[in-house]
Amino acid sequence: MNTYIGSEEILRKKSQYIIPCxxxxxxxxxxxxRGEMQYLYDSTGKExxxxxxxxxxVNCGHCNPEITKAICxxxxxxxxTCTIYLTENIVNLAEQLAHITPGRxxxxxxxxxxxxxxxxxxxxxxxxxxxSEFISLRQGLHGRTKLGMSLTGLSxxxxxxxxxxxxxxxxxxxxxxCPYDKKYPxxxxxxxxxxxxxxxxxxxxxxxxxxxxxIQGNGGMVTPPPDYFxxxxxxxxxxxxxxxxxxxxxxxxxxxxxxxxxxxxxxxxIMTMAKALGNGTPVxxxxxxxxxxxxYTRPGASTLGGNPVTAAASLATLRYIQENDLPAKAAVLxxxxxxxxxxxxxxxxxxxxxxxxxxxxxxxxxxxDKTPAMKETDxxxxxxxxxxxxxxxxxxxxxxxxxxxPLVITTADINNLLNNLDxxxxxxxx
Length: 430
Ligand code: PMP
Hints:
Layout: H1 6-17, E1 32-36, E2 39-42, E3 47-50, H2 53-56, H3 65-75, H4 89-100, E4 105-111, H5 114-129, E5 133-137, H6 146-150, E6 167-170, H7 190-202, E7 207-212, H8 228-238, E8 242-246, E9 270-273, E10 284-289, H9 290-293, H10 308-323, H11 326-347, E11 351-357, E12 360-365, H12 374-386, E13 389-390, E14 392-394, E15 400-403, H13 411-426
The protein binds 4'-deoxy-4'-aminopyridoxal-5'-phosphate (PMP).
């Protein structure tokens, strides 16, 4: 006999006690009560294959026993002290990050979320360059703090009517809907080249940094061409502007490499991380080259940042990712999923575009004239949920199906997902 209060009571309490901006998926949402690796269970005992991983967080699976063990051991020994006292997990974790992050990235500051990591990275860029303007990308998302929201290029997530000034937005590398109506590669990366025009026309010339996600998660899995970031970096370097890469959603094996920037072979000046680093424990971090990091000498403290428990969880997460070679798994299984989706695309023209790397894949749903098929996206999400599959959605029009499962998913799971998606797609008449 369980004692769960159930979805209806949760919805009632939610509307009475939670600020309404906290929205949820589904017309008929379930109460989730338990997780086990790639599976979730609701209050009635029904099993779901999680294909969204809490938005790219539980890369190592729900309640992964090895990570849970490390967390419990640490909770039972020393939970919190704050960085004014010395503990060892935080420095061991920073050392690990120095090893696995690209290039010369070396020194880390820990906080508790992706938004905070981006705020901190922006501050560091300002301190280092002496400049305070920023460039960001349309359709990017960098957080819900004042600055994070102001750096975000999605109207849905820009609730603040008085955003921070001094931020110029560049067109993103959205090849499916190219802002210049060009085709890659004959476009010669017009969207990247535009950044130089923006620097020269929309800014004072004193820009601290440009923010970019390697793949825009909330933006609809927008995946730039392979040489995009090289061009961007060379433009920024010419103007002394830092590149801050937000790997909050793409990091830790998700795209088939430890970090998505490795696909682009470009070394960021500062990199921000969160989500999958803690596999569900609240962690955020930004890492910079020593030369940049060493400018930040005035006191900076995050009360819970890098605390013994989240650092233990993160260390166990990194160990699990490496020991089980999850990046390689994501590459192989991502191909199975992408190939399967491509076959479905041939059958169902509503799938307009499939994009992404590794197990970060989006399928943009459109009508024959390429306008966004929003209603159908919601229908698919609900029907897939009823069949026991949790798929995400994103993009400025919320018409891109998002597949970001825990990286411990199996080929059988993916085939099961694809068969069910096939059935649901066949029931759509447009
Ligand atoms: N950056 C990116 C790319 C994100 O996807 C998110 C969250 N969806 C954030 C930053 C903000 O992270 P958090 O919710 O942990 O503050």
